[in-house]
Amino acid sequence: MEELRLQKYLAQCGVSSRRGAEQIIQEGRVTVNGTVVTEMGIKVKKGDKVTVDGQIVKQEKIKYYILLNKPAGVLSSVKDDRGRECVVDLIEGIDARLYPVGRLDYDTTGLLLLTNDGDFMQRVTHPSFEIWKTYQAVVKGVPTETDVKRFAEGIMLDDGKTLPAVLDVVGYKGNNAIVEVSIREGRNRQVRRMLERIGHPVNSLKRISFGSLELGDLKPGKWRHVQPEEIARLTEER
Ligand code: URA
Predict the structure, then answer these.
(1) Same domain, yes or no, for 106 and 200?
(2) 76 CA: nearest ligand 1 atom
(3) Is any atom of ligand 1 closer than 6 Å to the C-beta of 108?
């Protein structure tokens, strides 16, 4: 192995994105050859012993990309202090440290990618990546054409105006509507907040696509491997 900056090494090992690794280092959670390292400049080479939270970190040769249909009531994280179920608990038989690519809310279901490829994770979660993500929601009431136009112009939220988004009414459920919303950002609870802002709060929310990847008929709690061609298409999309 060539010499690598510690944060890049941690990302390549799948510990987190490079930016996430910087934070982990700053928090004093990383040791190199038995010494806690909190500076960024340090390089590691073959034979160095690196640990995070006391666990040895090794470069994993096989890169895994998993597409999970996240059920409601599961956290999009690796572990939870309060013992709640996490998405990685649903993936059995993979000998690698997997991390969710971005997050879905606790109650949101649908397409969530997991990977041990830190560089891929950093790329697709970076705000500049702006990949389209589509969600299906059941909302209170029925949005109008004016609401559709407001989405197309961007919705003013507490943390600023969103990028132009797409809102489609695709069906009805009693007095409520089934809508599809496509956004290019990944702000916290963004779809819920956008729909709330136009007066149509969300009853349930499911992500059905992430760029060219689709959830299809994968059942909640089930997962599949994403093929390298699918990953290549996804990263070339924009
Ligand atoms: N937008 C939301 O409001 N929630 C999610 O889980 C994802 C996008």
Answers:
(1) no
(2) 6
(3) yes
Among protein residues, the one with the nearest Cα to ligand 1's atom 3 is 189
104 alpha carbon – ligand 1 mean position (Å): 6
Query: Among this protein's residues, is 105 annotated catalytic?
Result: yes
The whole-angstrom separation of Cα 17 and Cα 122 is 5
Do residues 117 and 145 share a domain?
no
Which ligand 1 atom is at minimum distance from the Cα of 103? 6
Predicted TM-score (pTM) of this structure: 0.78
What does the pLDDT look like over 197-218, one tens digit per residue?
Answer: 999 999 999 999 999 999 999 9
β-partners of residue 225 are: 66
pLDDT digits (tens, 9 = 90+) for 46-71: 788 999 999 888 876 689 999 999 99
**What CATH number has the domain bearing residue 220?**
3.30.70.580
CATH number of the domain enclosing 165: 3.30.70.1560
Q: Is the CB–ligand 1 distance for residue 189 below 6 Å?
A: yes
Name, in order, each residue with C-beta under 8 angstroms of 39's C-beta and a sequence gap of 6 or more.
Answer: 25
209: Cα separation from own chain's centroid: 12
Start-to-end C-alpha separation, the chain:
31
Residue 149: pLDDT band (50, 70, 90) is very high
Q: What ligand 1 atom has the least distance to the C-alpha of 192? A: 3
Percentage of the chain exceeding pLDDT 90: 74
Alpha carbon distances (Å) from 79 to 99, 140, 192: 10, 33, 25
- Our answer on whether the CB atom of 122 is closer than 6 Å to any ligand 1 atom is no
> Which structural domain, as residue segments, surrounds residue 84?
65-127+213-236
Of 19 and 81, the one with more pLDDT:
81
Average pLDDT over every residue of 144-163: 98
